[in-house]
């Protein structure tokens, strides 16, 4: 019998599972902790001889087999471990599955300790955020050979099965001095051993939340992959979202039923918001003998899925819960992007092109296009960059104001003088504070708990008409286009269809391998498994201080509307929402600060004498023939 311990670097310890940490094993002596002969269920998922490298968790975790004095990182650099309670050594009890790829044989306790490099000055700080496994509460489960071994379609593939020590780093760009630091996730893909006998699997698929291009493609690929790759024959669809578990009938799914659904928009299973009742749902899962649950939805759906997983774990059921992230706004953090996003950007350009044609064909033409983006303006950002016909793009992350020097009205007036027309793109979540100043504040929420947004597109169009009709003799010709529901309802394009296929394959491989409570998605273009709670911990926002937003400003030549201090304060607010640490010294401003005569909310400060006011003209001059009509950067 061999000795095994886990050693972790001195960086901040990140727990990916609070309840598991609370139930962590007590600290044990560091020497001669031996295990009984490893059980077949656990040891089968560990290498018989662990290689002297910590590719498991680069330089944060060292796994010892019979030797307590050395550890290696993934670059072969040797570390010296200081045993005992010497100065600088700290003990922190954690459970094995937090930080080690392999499952630990029964009876082996682990101790997380500080790890020093040979120089005694360099510390390590890699973090591995693992996903749960059904053996966490059912340790004696039997394993089965993966049927893909005998699948002729994969017979020519070399190293098709993913090794248990393969991880994906969250940050692709690292420092040369500490390339091993950062967060890592378990890489997705088929495992050599599976924990579900295919003929005993009863899988269900449910879709929740709003529509998105590509949902039917995901459904199709889950069904076909389970059927043809693993030989699963019992697959059902839950009709009508979460409430369908206990209030609706199910639909039998097979390759013939889903054969051509990828050519249609929407979802063949139907969807709804709300309706989540954890106990009723898990009761239905247990009563129907379902042992694999595939859930397609956004952040609210994921939170509901996490509650389902927790209740299944509490009851000790052999059920895998796997999620596929769905959000057309692309606001789920960690993963590179959500499926349907590419299709949405592509379709949004059709609306922008129509608005451009309308505006260009009329005197003083203004085209306004409202796109999706409740809290994140990603679709508006990328559609604007791809189109090159947009004069100004407004998103929730970048506040703007209408009247006064440097405001939107002044910019539109100036662009009409130069080009004779203007095209504006506004995300649905932009300018909500401005709308609230003129409309009654009704804080309504939908069934998913989201605040109902006011129609910024219609409001902005009306404000434009009123402003220019009052101040100028010649009115503008304004066309407002809202393609929101047209974009949501179309099928996925070629790129999204391929992406949906990869997502479906990832989740079925993970579920068959016994992983649960996870969502699948690409991180740095490598698919991996992410704990559900971690995936929806924060939302992705457009960073208006990075290069992508600068590229948009360069493309449209639009003003940023707010000064650097205001944008810096805005970014600090977003970082605070995402849980990032900061100090008040990082910006020198407060809620009542004034910049060039304007307060933080963009309203004009009438008491500021030196605030520059726009000159009042009586008509909008025609476009200057000497001014280039193409105002966009190449």
How are the secondary structure elements laid out?
Layout: E1 6-8, H1 18-22, H2 40-43, E2 61-63, E3 70-72, E4 78-80, E5 91-92, H3 96-99, E6 112-113, E7 116-117, E8 126-129, E9 144-145, E10 167-169, E11 182-187, E12 193-194, E13 202-207, H4 215-229, E14 234-238, H5 244-247, E15 250-252, H6 278-287, E16 292-297, H7 299-315, E17 320-325, H8 341-360, E18 365-371, H9 378-387, E19 392-394, H10 408-419, E20 421-427, H11 432-438, H12 456-471, E21 477-481, H13 484-488, H14 494-512, E22 518-523, E23 526-531, H15 532-535, H16 547-556, H17 564-577, E24 594-595, E25 598-599
Helix pairs in contact: 4-14, 6-7, 8-9
Poorly predicted ranges (pLDDT <50, ≥5 residues)?
1-123, 577-634
Rounded Rg: 28 Å
What would you call the structural class? alpha/beta
State the end-to-end distance: 68 Å
Mean pLDDT: 74
What's the tally of helices? 17
Apparent shape? elongated
Percent range for β-strand residues: 15-25%
Tell me the helix content.
25-40%
What is the number of E strands? 25
The major pleated sheet works out as: 10 strands, mixed
Active site: 329
EC number: 2.7.1.11
Organism: Sphagnum jensenii
Pfam families: PFK
Write up what this structure looks like.
The strands form seven sheets. Strands 8, 10, 11, 13, 14, 15, 16, 17, 22 and 23 form a ten-stranded mixed beta sheet that branches. Strands 19-20-18-21 form a four-stranded parallel beta sheet, sandwiched between helices. Strands 3-4-7 form a three-stranded antiparallel beta sheet, with no helix packed on it. With 634 residues, it is an alpha/beta fold. α4 packs across α14 (494-512), α6 crosses α7 (299-315) and α8 (341-360) crosses α9. It contains 17 helices and 25 strands. Residues 1-123 and 577-634 have low confidence and may be disordered.
């Amino acid at each position: 019998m061999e000795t095994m311990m886990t050693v972790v670097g001195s960086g901040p310890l990140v727990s990916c599972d609070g309840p598991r940490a609370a139930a962590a094993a007590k600290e044990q002596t560091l020497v001669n902790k031996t295990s009984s002969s490893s059980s077949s269920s656990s040891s089968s998922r560990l290498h018989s001889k662990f290689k002297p490298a910590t590719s498991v968790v680069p330089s944060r975790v060292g796994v010892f087999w019979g030797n307590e004095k050395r550890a290696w990182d993934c670059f072969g650099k040797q570390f010296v471990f200081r045993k005992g309670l010497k100065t600088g050594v700290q003990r922190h009890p954690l459970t094995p599955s937090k930080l080690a790829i392999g499952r630990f044989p029964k009876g082996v306790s682990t101790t997380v300790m500080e790890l020093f490099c040979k120089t005694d000055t360099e510390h390590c700080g890699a973090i591995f955020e693992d996903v749960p496994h059904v053996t966490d509460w059912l340790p004696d489960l039997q394993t089965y050979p993966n049927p893909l071994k005998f699948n002729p379609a994969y017979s020519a593939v070399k190293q098709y099965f993913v090794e248990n020590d393969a991880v994906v780093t969250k940050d692709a760009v690292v420092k040369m001095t500490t390339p091993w630091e950062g967060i890592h996730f378990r890489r997705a893909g088929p495992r050599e051993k599976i924990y579900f006998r295919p003929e005993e699997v009863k899988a269900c698929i449910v879709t929740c939340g709003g529509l998105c291009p590509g949902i039917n493609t995901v459904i199709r690929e889950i069904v076909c992959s389970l059927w043809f790759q693993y030989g699963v024959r019992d697959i059902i669809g839950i009709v009508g979202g979460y409430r369908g578990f206990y209030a609706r009938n199910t639909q039998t799914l097979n390759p013939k039923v889903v054969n051509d659904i990828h050519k249609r928009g929407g979802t063949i299973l139907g969807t709804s918001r709300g309706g989540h009742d954890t106990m009723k749902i898990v009761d239905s899962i247990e009563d129907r003998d379902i042992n694999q649950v595939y859930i397609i939805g956004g952040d609210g759906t994921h939170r509901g899925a996490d509650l389902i997983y927790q209740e299944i774990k509490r009851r000790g059921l052999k059920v895998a819960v796997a999620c596929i992230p769905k959000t057309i706004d692309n606001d789920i953090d960690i993963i590179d992007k959500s499926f349907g996003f590419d299709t949405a950007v592509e379709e949004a350009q059709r609306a922008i092109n129509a608005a451009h044609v309308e505006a260009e064909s009329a005197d003083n033409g203004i085209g306004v296009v409202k796109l999706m983006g409740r809290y994140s303006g990603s679709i508006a950002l990328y559609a604007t960059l791809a189109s090159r016909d947009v004069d100004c793009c407004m998103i929730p992350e970048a506040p703007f104001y209408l009247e006064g020097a440097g405001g939107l009205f002044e910019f539109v007036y100036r662009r009409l003088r130069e080009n004779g027309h203007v095209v504006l793109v506004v995300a649905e979540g932009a300018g909500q504070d401005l709308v609230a100043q003129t409309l009654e504040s009704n804080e309504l929420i939908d069934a998913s708990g989201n605040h109902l947004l006011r129609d910024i597109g219609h409001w902005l169009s009306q404000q434009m008409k009123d402003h220019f009709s009052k101040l100028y003799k010649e009115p503008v010709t304004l066309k407002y286009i809202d393609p929101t529901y047209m974009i949501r309802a179309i099928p996925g394009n070629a790129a999204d269809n391929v992406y949906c296929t990869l997502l479906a394959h990832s989740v079925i491989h993970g579920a068959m391998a016994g992983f649960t409570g996870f969502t699948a998605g690409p991180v740095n273009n490598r698919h991996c498994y992410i704990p559900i709670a971690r995936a929806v911990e924060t939302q992705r926002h457009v960073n208006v201080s990075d290069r992508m937003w600068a590229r948009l400003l360069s493309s449209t030549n639009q003003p940023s509307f707010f000064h650097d201090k205001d944008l810096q304060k805005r970014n600090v607010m977003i970082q605070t929402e995402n849980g990032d640490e900061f100090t008040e010294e990082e910006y020198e401003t407060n809620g009542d600060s004034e910049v060039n005569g304007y307060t933080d909310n963009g309203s004009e400060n009438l008491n500021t004498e030196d605030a520059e006011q726009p000159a009042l003209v009586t008509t909008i001059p025609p476009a200057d023939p000497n001014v280039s009509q193409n105002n966009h950067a190449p």
